[in-house]
Structure formats: C-alpha cells, structure tokens
Prior knowledge:
The protein is an alpha+beta fold. It folds into 3 domains: 22-132 and 146-206, 2-Layer Sandwich (Gyrase A, domain 2); 267-341, Elongation Factor Tu (Ef-tu), domain 3 (Beta Barrel), CATH 2.40.30; 369-468, no CATH class. Helix content is 20%, strand content 28%. The strands form 6 sheets. A 6-stranded mixed sheet has the order 8-9-10-7-1-11, with no helix packed on it. A 6-stranded antiparallel barrel has the order 12-15-14-13-16-17. Strand 16 (323-325) and strand 17 form a beta hairpin. The longest helix is centred in the C-terminal third of the chain and has 15 residues, at 456-470. It is globular, with a radius of gyration of 23 Å. Residues 5-19, 134-157 and 338-364 have low confidence and may be disordered.
Amino acid sequence: MNKFGKVQKQFIRCDSSESSSRILEQLKNKSLLRIRGNEASVFLQGLITNDMKHFEEGAANLYALFLNIKGRVMCDVIIYKSQEDNVYYVECDSQVAEPLQKHLKMYRIRRKIDIDQLGDEINVWVFFDPTQYMNNKHNDNNKQKLEGLIFPCGTLNNKVSKIVENIMIYEDPRLPDLGIRILAASTIERQVIIKHLNSNVVDSINNLNYKAFRYKLGVPEGIEDLPPGKALPLEVNCDYLHGVSFHKGCYIGQELTARTYHTGVVRKRLMPLLFNEIPNKSVSYDDKIVNESGNAIGKFRGIESQYGLGLMRIIESLNAQSLTVSDIKLKVSKPMMESIASTSMDKTRIEHSQGLTSAVQDSKEIVTGVFKCSYCSLEERFDFKGIKAPFSRQLSYTEECYIMKDPFSLPNKGEVLVLGADCNFCKKTVCLECSIYFGKRFCLKCASSNVQNLPSQLHSKIKNLIKEKDS
Length: 471
C-alpha cells in the first residue's frame, strides 16, 4: 500500500480535445493535515459547515469552513477522503495549519483520533483551464438576482478520483470551472504529474495565474481573502460554493448562519472586481469602494494582476454608474458561478426572485393565526403570513411564509422566525423541517414524487429526510 492507500476504481479523464491547453500550478501556500481514527468523521461533523455524510453518499471530497464561536470564518478547507478507512486529509492555508491543528486538538477531548501536520511530505497542485473567461464581459442583466438568495446546500457530483504512483487527483468540490485538485508526494516532479493528466499543459495563459483566475470567478481562498475572525460564511459565497449544510445539525458557530438562512437575507457578497489596468499604487484590505456620489458601498479584499475581490452591497454596486477605490477606477460583476443555474429548477428559482417586487404588492397578507404543519406535530402561533412582515427589519422573502416574532430577541429589534409555508404543489401547510426549498417550497411527499425535476444534489437529502420522518 502506498502513501495514499488503495487505488480508486474510478478515474478522471482530462482529454486534450476538451481544451487546447491548461495550466498546472503548484499552490505553495497550502498545507495538509491528516486526521485518522474511528471517530474522525463524527469529530469533524461537529466542527465544519458542511456535512460529512456526503462521504457516505460517495463524495470524494468536500469544501467547508471552520467557524469560531461567534460564527465568523476561522479558515476555509477542502477535505479529502483517503482510500484508507477513517482517514481524511484537510487542505488549508499554510499560515493557519498550526492554529487549525491546535483548534482540532482542543475539541478532540478523549476521542482516539490522530491529528498530524504533513508538512512538506505532500504538495498541492491545481490544474485548470482559464480560456473560457478571457473575454472579460460583464453581464448587467437581472441585477437583483443575488440579493436575498441563499442557495440550497449540497455538493457537486464529485464522486470521481484517481490515485496512482503517490498522486491523488480530485475534481474541485466548489465549481467545475476551478478544475482539478492534485495531492502529490513532494518527491514527485512536475513532469511526472503531467504524464498522468493526458492534456496539453502550459505554465500560464496571458499571464493569468490561479489566484487571478479565482478572483475573476469571485472565489475567495486562504488567509489573504478570509482573515480569521472577520468574514461571515454567506457573505463569502460559501453557499454558492457548496460549502454549507443547513440541515446537518449543530456545529461550532452555526447559530448566526442558521438564523440568516431561516430569517434573513444576504445583502453583501464577495464579488469580482475588474480594474481597467494594473494599479500603479497599493490598495489595502478594507479600503472603501465608493460610487459616483462618494458613498461607500463596499470594501476592498484583494487584487492579483487586474482582477480583485470586494465585499460589496449587491444592489448598490450593480446599479452604480462608476466605482473607485483609492481613486482607481474599477468595475464589478456577479460571481461567475454558472453551474448553480444549470437545472430547470434553478431557472424556476431565478424567475421567482425576479418577480419578487410585484409579488410583494400582490400577495395576500394574513395577520396572526395558528400555524399547523400537515406532516408533523408542530403547532405555533404566527404573527404574519406573506412576503414582507412589517416588523422584520425591511426583509423580503422569496415566498409567502408564516412568520412569528422571535420570542428570544429584545423588543423592537425586528428579529423573526420563519415557521414554514404552503407547498407549491399540494398547497398543504408544511414546516421547514418537513419540506425542501428550491425556488419554491415543496413538502417531502411532493418533492419525492417530482424528484426527477430536482438536481441530483438534493436526491439523497430528500431520501434521508423522509427516512428520518418515518423512523
């Protein structure tokens, strides 16, 4: 058995016919931790934003965040399942490898788990094709799609990997456009890796490296983009990147993310920035990005070549006539995460969000009553049914839902709890735990009957929820 264990039965194919050339780049700022033990999966389940049960469903790797107790991002990771039983590799920024190891050991308590830094034993490589995004076009249509949309949890169909000669090859779990992640023993040369990729490999295309390519897509990564203790998971597009589960149960720091999902909207997002030319002066983290009126509508996060990232107020930034940071002109666009809108149900969700304004005006609002779920014993008084409750801090929802004032919040703070909604098919009242939301609300029975119209990421989730309800 080699360093990575048994050889996987399935293989990734990178045919040269798919692209004229691709870039193979070593990520020298990445390190690996190895976590092994019979309780390794359960241990990680209580610490990360994603669901370790995806591995039981066949996933080869997954993207996740570690949060601090205040719900802010401590670091982002990619977790790989080894072919050895109960062994996982955790890829993280090299600068947080030691703090993350200490964090894990603090919560290990008496579990029989080994947590080791692999140091320079294994190198992390990335293999990607940037050519499809070389035109720099910015789509300004449907400017309000992003605000208020929190995407359903789930992972991509990343169930394929290849392990040969101490080289472990995986699809990136965040986006197909990010290409392939490679873990290789440090003794293995670049040319040996290229031999197994079966594709034309170059060092760079138009001086575009991996960091600039990430920024062009709007994807943050590592301590430079996500300083520990500052970012919020949904604001850094964790849901777009299939890195958060809203159904898995408790984990460290989950309260704020869960509350945002159930009761609020996301008005700020990390968004790609494009500079007309490479700036000739430095721009600092948190520098204000202002519009033509001089109003601050975002904060600068990072730059590579002419591409950057900014934490932006979505509506204001997309409606701005001009944007500048430190007197340097720039443009902003929506994150290029098109794989999210690849199914017919995604189209339904987008069309539904486009009609939000008129729906607010036309909805039949009901004030006070008793909410009763048709599938479980939940029965609770609600204070409002509709899209926009007058007491909910100007929040608007993408469906007519049953809303109650949060009994645990301070008076007049506008904090609310969403109890549920009516199923879009059978019109029965259903709570959040007995339903699936994907553009519209569906009870588990209707979701199961129409599962062929839902993306594959939700199939296992629906089956598991039905199994839980039946047990």
